[in-house]
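Checklist before submission:
- one chain only
- standard amino acids only
- sequence pasted in full

Submission:
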Amino acid sequence: MKGQFGAAAATRTVALLESLKKPRLRDPADLIRLHETALFLRAYPQSPAVMRLADEILLSFADRLPSDHDKFADPELSGIAGTAVSTNFSYEFVRSLLGRHGRNLSIDWENFEHPERLAPALTRLIPASRDDWAVEAYPDWRRWFEKGRGTLHWLLDHLTPEIYDLLEIPVRWEPGEASRSHLRIPRRDIFYHDGPLLKRDPNMIAKMLAAPPIPRKILGAAAAHKIAGVIVDASAVRYRELYGFLYPDLKRIEHAEPGRGIDVFLFGAARRLPVRDYLCGMFFKNGVPIGYIEGLIRDANMEAGFNLYYTFRDGETAWLYAVLLKLLQERSGVKTFSVDPYQIGHENEEALASGAFWFYRKLGFVPESRGLWPLLSKEERRIQEQPGYRTPVATLKRLASSRLVYGAL
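Returned file contents:
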């Protein structure tokens, strides 16, 4: 029902969601499919009733899970309510998470591969532990940490960010209200999809860039601090960190509402890069975080990294991408955009499988290397002449060997 619209479709979707409110699904694959579909429908609801029922399912989802959460640990699925995430988050992310979720974070000792790396820090902070370090073959560093009433706060307060990151301490976080199932930002005006989703138009980016400017406003200090925390939470539950999310410029977080229930928060980094200018942002659909963007700027060109979370890739992806490029262009003044080869398949199997190259090509991007143009022309003729034709992986790899560029060449 994700691609069906109108009153009849909304009624059908409501009936299906109602039927799934109580039944217990035992197969993890069924639970995952239900969660991801409900989350999509929460972001792209056909009616108020669809949104309400999707929320009911999502907000109570922890009660549906089996005791074994291993099937829900994949980074593409992580962050479902009732589960935990565990990884060696950076110093800045741990510091940020502790400020909002301190009670729900702890060292994941079971997955700490190198607890001995704590030794130099603990022997300085707990002098009595030096004895074990000097003469014992396998000191119990967890015992010493807990004996010294150690906490993550305590470690971060006594270690530099560089030293902390080198220790690679796995942190276990139970996100609770910050889970993918629950996380929202407030939004008064919900956009209900009572008609078809916007489809890709080859001239969509050109039309968007030529349209009137999209209003942007700078958030006040309290709102900026709050949204920066939401952005870290939305990233951490998906095991993702971005430079700008680590060091956000809180004095200039800009908010834009380009329409169709979208909120975009755009900002630079408080710690500037030595060579390139930097912008990044996160975007929300009807209050649900659905992806992020990053822009590296040099010589009037922006290398734009666009990441739409897997759950929402059946939505209005092309229109959304055009909106984001417009906002980035209006803030930065760049003349061209480029896409790194990794994003389209260079040493990236997921991008090859999804046909990422053609997403950008059909929006007007071309290979920066003119040597690939004959191959591209040949492949486009085959697509036009042979219905159902799919570009071989070997050809996609060749096409992904060069950056893609939009604008003057």
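Reviewer check: The CA atoms of residues 352 and 394 lie 10 Å apart.
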